[in-house]
Amino acid sequence: MNLTFDKDLSIEVVRTKRRKTASIKVIDGAVQAIVPDQLSDGRVEALIQKRTPWIRNKLREQSQIVTPKPKEYVSGESFTYLGRNYRLKVSRGTDREIKLKGGYLEVGLPKKPKDGDIRSALVDWYEQHALERLIEKTNRYARIIGVSPNSISVRDYKARWGSCSSKGEISYNWRIIIAPHHIVDYVVVHELCHLKHPNHSPAYWKSVKREVSDYEVCRQWLKKHGTELVI
């Protein structure tokens, strides 16, 4: 069943016997309401009417997201590290090595490189530097906040920037190292504060704000630019 509101808001309603509660998803500009099979049409419409401002806000946010152009792994392509752009410079016939030098991200490979070889080398380099920088930032902010994580690691998350487990293990999406320093600091503080508050309560956000006063700006930056943090 499809419902239309105000002529410009189309919502697909999916009924299922597996759900006891209703939920609304907005993905890539499409709105879907997943509801229990026995919920009346009137209740469904009332739910959607109540959530319409939230739906429109999500649609507006998604419309502002820019889909990044796929990277080309050739000399001259632009790659970003901690918010600063570097031009890729590929060298052949050298030992495998990557370094930042004079505004360039220099990649040396021992044979004629293919796109897959260059990308693999870049991913390894970013992951290594992400772990080093994030350990450094996490330890620094942990001392300030007064907490002690049990471990710090980086992972290849698809839909999150960090995670703090109930065991005090903190892990980060390595791609966050592409973002500017201040955004990285926010993600670090966000996870560390969960060691004090394992939720998103007012007390939790107060702890975050104590270290990152403009954390709401950082959250919006990630929503808007998160899809651009790719190599």
Topology:
Blueprint: E1 2-5, E2 9-16, E3 23-27, E4 30-36, H1 41-63, E5 78-81, E6 84-92, E7 97-101, E8 104-109, H2 115-145, E9 151-155, E10 162-164, E11 169-173, H3 181-193, H4 202-211, H5 215-225
Helix pairs in contact: 2-3, 3-4
User: Would you state the CATH class of the largest domain?
Assistant: Alpha Beta
- The number of E-state strands comes to 11
* CATH 2nd-level architecture of the largest domain: 2-Layer Sandwich
**Which structural category do the helix and sheet elements fall into?**
alpha/beta
Going by CATH, what is the homologous superfamily of the largest domain?
A: Metalloproteases ("zincins"), catalytic domain
Distance between the termini: 40 Å
Note the overall shape. Answer: globular
Q: What gyration radius follows from the Cα positions, in whole Å?
A: 22 Å
Might you state the CATH topology name of the largest domain? Zincin-like
Percent helix, as a range, is: 25-40%
Summed up, the domain count is 2
> How many strands, which pairing sense, and closed or not: the largest β-sheet?
4 strands, mixed
Which parts are unreliable, with pLDDT below 50 for 5 consecutive residues or more? Answer: none
* Spatial order of the strands forming the largest sheet: 1-2-4-3
SSE succession: EEEEHEEEEHEEEHHH
Number of helices: 5
